[in-house]
Each structure stands twice: as structure tokens, then as C-alpha cells.
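Write out the bound-state structure for 5-amino-5-deoxy-1-O-phosphono-D-mannitol.
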Amino acid sequence: MCGIVGYIGTENAKEILLNGLEKLEYRGYDSAGIALLNKEELTVVKEKGRIADLRKKVATDASGELGIGHTRWATHGKPSEENAHPHQSLSGRFVIVHNGVIENYSLLKDEYLENVPLKSDTDTEVIVQLIEKLSNEGLETKEAIRKTLKLLHGSYAICVIDQKEPNLLYAAKNKSPLLIGKGSSFNIIASDAMAALKETDQFIEIADEEMVILSRDSIQIETLDGEMIEREPFTAAIDASDIEKGTYPHYMLKEVDEQPAVMRRIIQSYQNEAGDLAVDHAVLDEVLNSDRIYIIACGTSSHAGYVGKAMIERFAKIPVEVHISSEFGYNIPLLSEKPLFMFITQSGETADSRQVLVKVKEMGYRTLTLTNVPGSTLDREADQSMYLHAGPEIAVASTKAYTAQVAVLSILAVAAGRAKGVEQAFEIDLSAELGIAATAMEAMVSSKELIEHIAGEFLATSRNAFFLGRSVDYFVAMEAALKLKEISYIQAEGFASGELKHGTIALIEDETPVFAIVTQENINWNIRGNVNEVLARGANACVFAMEGLEQPGDRLVIPHVHELLTPLVSVIPCQLLAYYAALHRDCDVDKPRNLAKSVTVE
Ligand code: M6R
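---
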């Protein structure tokens, strides 16, 4: 997590850094800071809290044509001004911002920095103190940085300023994202292109274990062994307007509303010349050559994975297992003979998923990533990729990425089934069904007033909530619960409703809010029985049912869609429920406490 940005050019870096950090705030928002170098005069400003707090603290006349900035998600040391980046070396000469985790920082401290009093609790400070130590021992700055990097174990993306070299900006990366934004008479370094899009649309990738030396008009990339690298810039696929909130009060609401349009974009993106939905041959080959698919994902992406499992097993007749990344990597189950590992990840940067990718590649297995971010780490490192085409998702709570994942998984499932000659895969006109789902999603995003009312009635003051479902509705119930707890801090649980009576029903008291999602005909009466059981124990129940299955007293009717595509539609009222519950409780919807959008630490 954490976001970093660096600038070297002819303009005052202050606004460029602050604007860039605002765009990176989704990566962490515990504290923030910038350093500006004006000739050899250095200004460092840090603040606990948000970029807005930092902005207030930076003097209006602060300036420098070289600068670095950071927004933090705390890993080592509590969120505080002392632990905020940038960190300085003992003399103050070297200044660093860092994203990642240095696993051996404690060993390095004991071995090399015994006599250096550290000012913070961070792993980062060790890096900058080491650079100064090696520089004091006679190494030139570039060599001191290179030697320091070789001592580090773990992940890092760093920017370093040497006060004595006001015309150079140093950077390096290993396992944490970082790229160069190329301008005319300036260059930028950032964790994400979003931070620099206002300045340039030309970007250059940096590979792991490379370091970069930037001046305002030159870019030098080297390996840690000093080999020079030539790399051409690419044009960013998104433009600055894609990442603005526009007239929306929150990114989350904007992203919820974008879902029908994303559905239509996915249909278009996967259509072949004949107008059929199709998947790249290389991807299909991977799927067809495997005897079992292992879906590896975290959070919302894993919930989409469960829906994907149902679809792949039904349409392609390939067994699928869904695993949580952080568990799988350290407790690998008995694998089939020809497994395919499918990583589902909005960001493509999730460290828990990446550690599995690295392990299974070492074991010689094939890999496929479904991601929203082309060029992200899991995209680059997997054998094959499929893209979600959801556009940048900025709110911490994932919404449009989930529905995009479900849609892309359905396309893959049907394409694989057809290639295998599975009858069920020919029975569905998926393009038409996804179109119908897009229209149904429109109806759901238009039900805001009703959902806001329900959120007020059921969730304004409650301390817990249950979401019930069976089969695919259970998968949506898990997602609904995650969304609610993540942004409204209400303790919530998504439950297979038949399982309630095996223990959890003991938690039902007078007024406990219980939401039931009912979209599957074959379980309509079973789940209604479960709803009656909780009603009999005093719960406040609210049913969202699909057209054709509705009963008097249900609070929302979900338009009819294909039975396996119902999560695309039923999830939307749940997303809105979480959104309005968070508003009722005065929570920061887009930046919930303790969280960050892109989870780049294990
Ligand atoms: O970028 P990823 O899809 O790999 O992220 C996985 C989870 O961290 C993410 O889905 C998280 O659960 C969301 N904040 C949920 O809204």
C-alpha cells in the first residue's frame, strides 16, 4: 500500500505533488508528507491524516523544482507525524519516500546502524540511514543507493533526493508498483499513472530490481548490476477525466452507477467479428488443457470467484476450487495433475495473490489473471490475462469490478464450454442475457430512494446485520456483508441460510436486521422458511426477491435475468444498502478506516 510521487522539472513541484498524492490517496491515508528541494534548501512537511490536512500545513510559498511525496498506510509504527514519510538521514542530506515492506530491516539496523539514533518506528528509515552511512564511507550517491538496495529483502518502491544533487531524482523498485511519467522538461515518478495524468500521458515501466536516475530532461534506467536498460514509453489507456468524481458526492456512488455501462463495454470488448462473445485462443487453450481450475483471490474478488465456479462448472464442466490467497500460499492443498491457477484481482497488485502466483509458477504450473489493470504486476507475471474493462475503480469498496469479474467469468465459462462441446453452453445466448442484465442493473441503480429508506429503517443504529442466501445468492450475501462492514463498520455476516439453525441463529434477537436475497426458483421456499425462523425470533427481516418469486411483504423486486447472472443485479441493492448505511452513520464512504484500495502487503 502507500502511494509515492516524485517530480523533477522547471515548475514548482508543490502542487504537482499534492495533486498527485490526492489521486494516490486510495492506496493509504494514515499520514502524508512532501519534501521540496529548492537549490540546496530543503523543506519537509508531514502530517498525520489526509492529504487535505497536509495541504493546510504546507506554506503557500513553499517551493522547489525537485520534490517527493507520500501517502501512507501504516505497516511499521502507528500513524503519526514521526512515522510519516518522507524520512531523512541523520544529517538531513538524504530524503526518502517508500512503499513496501523491508523484511530484514531489524537485522540491517543491528548490523549497520548500531550507532545511528533512529527517529521513527518505520522500516523505511533504515534505508535512508544506510544510504547516508555508505555515502559517508566514500561511495557516490548512486552507488550508495545501489549498494543499499542490494542489502534489502522485501518489497520497495522508493524515491530518494540527495540535497547535494538538486538536479537529480533517484528511484527504484522491487515488487511494489512504480512507473515513470515522461514529460518535456520534466519527469515524474509515481506508484500509479493516475498521479501523473494531469501532467503527461506518456509512461515508462520500471521492472523489479531496477533503479532510475531522472533529471528534468533525461531518464536513465539501470539494473542493480549497472546494466543500462532502454525502454520506450507507452501512452496511458485512461485519461484524467476517468478518475474524476464529477458531480457525484462519492466515487463509490459513481462506480455503482457505472455498472450497466461497464456491462455493455464488456459485451463489446469480447465480441468477435461475427458478433459472438469470444475469448482469446491462448486463454481458452489454458482452460481446456487443465483438469481443474484453482481460483485464487481476496475479498470481493474471491466472492466473484465463487460465482465463476458455479458458471464454469455448469457451462464448461471443469471442476473449480476457490481459495483465499493468503491461506492458499501457505497451506497448498493436494493439487490435480493439470491445474490452471486463475487469479482474480481488480488491482492486479494484491500481495497475497501475488505470492501464490510466484509460488505456483516456481512449481511449473500455468496461470491466468483476470484484472482491471493492464500492465499491473499480476497481469505481467501470469501466462495469460483477461481484462475487466471496468475503468479505474477508486473507492476502496469494490463495486463495478465485482460485476465486471462476474461478467467476464461468464464469458470465459461459456466460451470454454462451447469449445469443449458442452450442451449447456450452447443453450444460452450470453450476449443477449448480459444485455438483459445490463438493463436490469439500470433499474437497480435507479432504486436509490427505496434503498436509502431501507438503510435508514434497518441499519441506522443497529450494531450487526445478517445477509442470507442459498446457492449463488449465498455468494452475493457474503459480498453484501463485506461491503456493509467495510464502509459502515456494522458487524455483518453473509450466511448460507440453511446453516443458520446449526448455531448462528442464537445471535438473532429483537430487531436484528436480516436481509434475504432470493433469486433462485429451486430454493425459494427453503429460504423463505429460514426467513420465517428468524422472524419468529424477533428479527427485522427484509427480502429482495427476483421477479416471479416475489411474495407480499418483500421490499424489493429484482428484474428477471438468467439464473446464473443474478449476482450481477442482486448485488447492486446490497452495494447501495452499504453506501446509505455508511452515510446514515456519518462514515467516510470512499476511505473507510484502517483500509486501503490496493493491498500490496501480505
Ligand atoms: O485488487 P483485488 O481485487 O486483488 O483486491 C482484493 C480485495 O482487497 C478487495 O476486493 C477488497 O476486499 C475490497 N476493498 C472489498 O470492497
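---
DSSP finds 19 helices and 25 strands in the chain.
The pocket of 5-amino-5-deoxy-1-O-phosphono-D-mannitol is lined by residues 298-301, 345-347, 350, 353, 396-398, 482, 486, 599 (CB under 6 Å).
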